[in-house]
Design goal:
The chain is an alpha+beta fold. The protein contains 9 helices and 11 strands. Strands 4-10-9-8-5-6-7-11 form an 8-stranded mixed β-sheet, with helices on both faces. A 3-stranded antiparallel β-sheet has the order 1-3-2. This is HTH-type sugar sensing transcriptional regulator TrmBL1.
């Protein structure tokens, strides 16, 4: 390994899914520039019998391109380009996993088990006070999903979020960047000062997850209705749905980017 490359770089590439040989070859191409297979084998100590397989794999995922000639040479793509490409590849991977689990395996789960009633209720009408009461009762973590970011809602709830910080509650907010329209910079500045805010391309619903064991999912906010108006809301305590939501949150959070107000001038 190159002594100038931090260990965490190797660890990150391996975490993405590269083998040790692929990681070493890619970094060698970055640090040394265009190289032949023989040159890479000599620099990285990758056996010459394996180096072509390694380079083909890197070419197949779009991280390396081949330069025709005798001998053929190889060039690494720019790291910034590879980072964006890797993010897309991770998103596609999670999408396939989600499809396999939810659409294919979930219908098969517990088919032979006795069906029991699940703790899910539908709340109708003005539920603002219910939200406030549950926010104030939160003791450890508050997770908020915003498919349709509502600055008025955030302004109304800010003092209650501020109360949670006094209790040392962690507040995490996932914002659907496709629907994000920053007009009240002050409220976003205040929200970002007391919570972790992450933007992601697609959030499926508006919801509050309280202490990872209770959840409110807003249906009518898909139509941009304020929680002060009439709403249909699911109140959920069912453990499997809560666990799915937690997994969904972790997946989106890993793919998102930190909210920076300067990006919304």
């Amino acid at each position: 390994m190159s002594s100038n490359i931090p260990q965490e770089v190797y660890a990150a590439l391996k975490e993405f899914g590269l083998t040790d040989y692929e990681t070493r070859a890619f970094i060698a191409l970055i640090t040394n520039g265009i190289s032949s297979a023989k040159e890479l084998s000599d620099r990285t100590k990758i056996p010459y019998s394996r180096i072509y397989d390694v380079l083909v794999n890197l070419e197949n995922i779009g991280w390396v391109k081949v330069i025709s000639g005798r001998p053929m040479k190889y060039k690494a793509e720019r790291p910034a380009f590879v980072a964006k490409l890797a993010k897309k590849q991770i998103e596609a991977k999670y999408s396939r996993i989600e499809t396999a689990l939810i659409e294919k395996l979930e219908p098969l789960y517990g088919q032979d088990e006795q069906v029991e009633s699940t703790p899910i209720w539908i709340l109708n009408g003005n539920v603002q006070q219910k939200v406030i009461d549950m926010v104030k009762a939160t003791n450890k973590t508050l997770t908020i999903f915003l498919k349709n970011p509502n600055e008025g809602l955030l302004a109304d709830m800010f003092e209650h979020f501020l109360y949670l910080t006094e209790k040392k509650v962690d507040i995490n907010i996932l914002v659907n960047e496709s629907n994000l329209n920053v007009t009240n910079k002050n409220i976003w500045r205040k929200i970002a000062s007391i919570s972790k805010v992450q933007t992601v391309k697609n959030v499926l619903f508006d919801a509050f997850l309280f202490d990872n064991n209770e959840m409110l999912i807003f249906l009518t906010t898909f139509f941009r209705i304020s929680i002060k108006d009439e709403n249909m809301v699911f109140f959920i305590q069912e453990s499997r749905l809560i666990n799915y939501t937690k997994t969904y949150f972790k997946m989106l959070w890993s793919m998102g980017e930190k909210f920076l107000l300067k990006n919304y001038s």
